[in-house]
Each structure stands twice: as structure tokens, then as C-alpha cells.
Amino acid sequence: MISYWELVKRIWHAPGNRGRRLKVLLRSVLWLVNKKTLRRPWTLRVFADLKLRCYPDSIIALHVVQRGEFHDWDTAKFITGFLRQGDTFVDVGANIGLYTVPAAQKARVVAVEPSVRNGQRLEENLRINGITSVRVEACALGEKAGEMAFCDADALAHVERDGTGPKVPVRTLDSILPEGEVSLLKVDVEGFELSVFQGAEDAMQAGRLPVILFEMNHSHERYGVSAAEIFGFLHSQGYQIARYEHDARQLVTHGLEGDVLAFTPRGERLIHERLLT
């Protein structure tokens, strides 16, 4: 657990807080008081003219309160900057909809969220923004259809191969994708990424997934999967791997942890046209 001083430094230096640091520090103090007393949800303004209902027990809400909607700086800048009018965006592990909501202003969106609680909050955030076009899939994704035990740990929620918890339906990504090209696929499934990718081989081989944004945080080790296996599978499907650094407007191939990009030659062209030129 970090100290209050470390928290203040983290808030102060967060790129998303540039130009409003004192305001966010005050908001963070009031949030902590609310969390310990009234425990009421707040509705925050995000991405200029959108709303996000933030509950005190939500990890994503805490990040937004303390570091803004761009708390995950490079990732948020990539998603919001890459998408264009008429694109298709698939948000696997949508949580409360932090990226689903702004994406729906431009793109056709499919949001995948197996957590009942997060799914309800996702639907609420769509509703308060008047968004009716997003298709929500209340399931987990894997290499084959079925069901698996699920550990509902908010932003750290994940499926368990041999768990005893409540079951959730599992589908393949191939089975839920809309027709045509998916301009951007985001996958945040706390280590189950390889299985999700294996359930999308048809779409990959057809060139329908030019750009994939996914998380590499060592949680794949809980499933006995290595980073080399994940990268090796993607390479076998014709993808290159890199990270996006927004401030430098560049793709880098070192330090492949955190949020990572996989892209085909077409995906690389799209990234350069939309973000790097």
C-alpha cells in the first residue's frame, strides 16, 4: 500500500492531470472521505462532454478520480486517437465502460464483460450518456465455447480453469464478432489473452483484426502461459508487436509490458496514418 505522500506525487505527475493538478488533489481527498463515510457514487465528466458513474468500490473509478480518464495515458490516447467515424471497436474486458463510452461516439462497438456487477455499471454508463448502439456480450471469451468458473475481482476479474466459483458462459471471439473488419480490438482479460486469441484464428487469418491492443502484466502465468507463447502465437498469425508512446508519437519494440499492440501490415499503415504522421 502506497503512502499518502506517494499518492500525492502520483496524482501530481499523472499526464492526465496536466493543467488541473490542484483540482484533482482536492477531488481525490473528497473521494476518500466519501469512500469512508457516505459511499455514494459520483458522476464525473470525462472526455469533454461524456459522463462516467463512479462507485466507491470500483478500481477503475478510483483511477479516474485520481488521474483522470487518461489515467492510462498511452492506452487512452491510442484508443481515442485511433478510432475514426464508421470504425468497429471490440472492447473485451470492458469493465464499467471507460473506453466503450467514448468509442461509441465514432464507432460501432461490441463490449464484452462477464462480471455481473461491472456489466450493470457498464449498462448504466451507456444509459446516462444516451448510448443505445453498443452491443454488450455478458460472457467470457476463450479458445472454445463452454463455461468456466469466474473470480469477480473488479478490474482484476478473471476466469479460473479449475475454480469452484460461479460459472460464466464462455464463447469464442470468432462467434461474437460483427461482420467486416474490426478496426481495433482491445483485450484486457487478466492473463487469459492467449485463449482469447486462439478463439479468433478465423478472423485473424481472414485479416479482419488489423490492430489488437492487449495487456501484458504477468497475470498469464496463473494459466501456465509464458509471454513467449503469446507473442509466438501472434507472430504465427502475421502480427508484429510493439508499444505505443503517445508523447513521442512512436512505436517501440522494447519493454513489451503493460499495454502492447499487435498489428498486421495493414494495421501498421493505419497506425501511422492516424497517429504517427
Question: How would you explain this protein's 3D organization?
Answer:
The chain contains eleven helices and 14 strands. The strands form three sheets. An eight-stranded mixed β-sheet has the order 5-4-3-10-11-14-12-13. It has a four-stranded mixed β-sheet with strand order 6-9-7-8. Strands 1-2 form a two-stranded antiparallel ribbon. Helix 5 links the parallel strand 3 and strand 4.
Level-1 CATH class name of the largest domain: Alpha Beta
Helix content: 25-40%
In percent, how much strand structure appears in the residues? 15-25%
What is the tally of beta strands? 14
- What's the overall geometry? globular
SSE topology string: HHEEHHEHEHEEEEEHEHHEHEEEH
CATH superfamily of the largest domain: Vaccinia Virus protein VP39
In short:
With 277 residues, this protein is of the alpha/beta class. It contains eleven helices and 14 strands.
